[in-house]
């Protein structure tokens, strides 16, 4: 590779954040003496002819379902203008969909802890081969994802678009720049619907504190006033996480932060939440998913409906905004369950804590999903739609499938609407589907004080 260049790393979508899944491998490649380029098609225009016409390797980051669907389109365009280019897909959803990617538009796939394997692939290509690189899955040679702690490097962000291009922290109408870091990767837990367990198998790896803090420093210099800790569960290693936010607060007392943690971790570690608030935690996300005991059991979430109420109180008492996420539609979710979700959100004063898109989310069953090992989903499961990267399923109550489609259309059309107004229109749609009389929607002041949130609505 001339001047050890010819390498393009492409991010397609990372939930509105500056892509750490590009910044991290950029640093590994640079440390090995390469000169990679970066492109984030979520905020930059993509022209395959200009971007990749002369690349020898294009590595496409696919940490989530949306990124994968976009990444395949990118790969197809690159293949048209540069047929000889080696296209590698890396990240969580690369592992889950390796067979399709290698059969259609990819030359290699890397999952798990991918950075060192990506460097080894580049070195092998430079030397004229690729057939036996540890951690690199190619046609005819399947390998297990790399699951070992890596020699982490400080993420290289200089060639990425600035933070102004990405999601901001909205604090009652005021907008602040946001930096995105990870203190750990993988997860201890085995929730059946999550894409992490099929790859990590209950393992997680901490990123050294000095690396995380150095990354926070460079983000703060770029103007970040809020840090999102994007760990699948920030409290898998609570001592490590607390140590990082204590050090961050000591160095940058005005920085705020958010994180994600399971309901059961909130209950187990209730005593640390007042300190998290003092250290600057503005809000936290927890994958509640459902209030139905049946749904929670079939997803093996590890918490109950009563646990959700207790966790909410713990977080609220600490002065931290609680932002639950939901899998609103599963094969086991009844219409009554769906209605109860709206009642709970209203009763607990959470309307402004939940993005409307959350009330439309459909259970995704990707290839290799742990759900496929359980009999409970078998009666509803259809064939694998490889091009969509999911197993289709049908709800036993046809009203629910229709409701999900109508709710999705409603939310898409209401993107500029006050979220509270959308909430009540969604609730009215659900009541109408159930044949129940409508409840009167209360008036919401448009200038009301709202809890802190990121300006990018969460979805996968």
Keywords:
Rossmann fold, pyruvate-formate lyase- activating enzyme, 17 strands
Protein described:
This protein starts with 6 loop residues before the first strand and ends in a 6-residue tail after the last strand. β11 (226-229), α9 and β12 form a beta-alpha-beta unit. α15 packs antiparallel against α16. The strands form 4 sheets. The chain has a 7-stranded mixed beta sheet. A 6-stranded mixed beta sheet has the order 2-1-3-4-5-6, with helices on both faces. It is an alpha/beta fold. It is 36% helix and 17% strand. It folds into 2 domains: 2-138, Rossmann fold (3-Layer(aba) Sandwich), CATH 3.40.50.280; 167-454, Alpha-Beta Horseshoe (pyruvate-formate lyase- activating enzyme). It is built from 16 helices and 17 strands.
């Amino acid at each position: 590779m001339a001047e050890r260049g010819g390498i393009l790393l492409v991010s397609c979508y990372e939930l509105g954040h500056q892509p750490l899944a590009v910044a991290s491998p950029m640093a590994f490649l640079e440390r090995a003496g390469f000169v990679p380029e970066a492109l984030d098609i979520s905020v930059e225009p993509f022209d395959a002819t200009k971007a990749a016409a002369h690349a020898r390797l294009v590595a496409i980051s696919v940490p989530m379902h949306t990124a994968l669907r976009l990444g395949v389109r990118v790969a197809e365009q690159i293949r048209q203008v540069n047929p000889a280019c080696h296209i590698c897909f890396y990240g969580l959803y690369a592992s889950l969909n390796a067979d399709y990617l290698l059969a259609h538009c990819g030359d290699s796939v890397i999952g798990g802890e991918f950075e060192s394997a990506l460097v080894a692939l580049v070195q092998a290509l430079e030397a004229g081969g690729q057939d036996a690189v540890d951690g690199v899955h190619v046609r005819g040679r399947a390998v297990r994802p790399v699951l070992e702690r890596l020699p982490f490097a400080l993420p290289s962000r200089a060639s990425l678009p600035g933070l102004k291009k990405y999601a901001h922290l909205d604090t009652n109408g005021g907008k602040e720049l946001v930096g995105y870091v990870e203190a750990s990767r993988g997860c201890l837990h085995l929730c059946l619907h999550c894409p992490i367990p099929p790859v990590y198998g209950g393992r997680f790896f901490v990123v050294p504190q000095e690396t995380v803090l150095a990354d926070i420093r460079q983000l703060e210099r770029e103007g970040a006033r809020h840090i999102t800790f994007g760990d699948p569960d920030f409290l898998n290693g609570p001592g490590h996480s607390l140590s990082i936010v204590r050090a961050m607060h000591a160095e940058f007392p005005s920085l705020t932060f958010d994180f994600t943690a399971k309901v059961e971790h909130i209950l187990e570690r209730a005593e640390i939440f007042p300190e998290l608030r003092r250290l600057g935690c503005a809000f936290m996300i927890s994958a509640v998913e459902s209030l139905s005991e049946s749904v929670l059991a079939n997803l093996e979430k590890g918490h109950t409906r009563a646990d959700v109420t207790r966790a909410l109180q713990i977080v609220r008492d600490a002065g931290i905004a609680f932002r639950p996420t939901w899998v609103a539609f599963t094969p086991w979710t009844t219409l009554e369950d769906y209605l109860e979700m709206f009642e709970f959100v209203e009763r607990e004063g959470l309307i402004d804590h939940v993005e409307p898109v959350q009330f439309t989310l459909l259970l995704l069953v990707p290839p290799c999903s742990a759900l496929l090992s359980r009999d409970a989903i078998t009666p509803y499961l259809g064939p694998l739609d490889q091009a969509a990267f999911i197993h289709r399923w049908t709800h036993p109550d046809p009203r629910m499938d229709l409701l999900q489609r109508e709710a999705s259309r409603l939310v898409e059309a209401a993107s500029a609407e006050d979220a509270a107004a959308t909430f009540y229109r969604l609730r009215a749609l659900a009541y109408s589907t159930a044949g129940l009389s409508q409840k009167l929607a209360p008036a919401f002041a448009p200038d009301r004080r709202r809890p802190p949130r990121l300006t990018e609505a969460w979805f996968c």
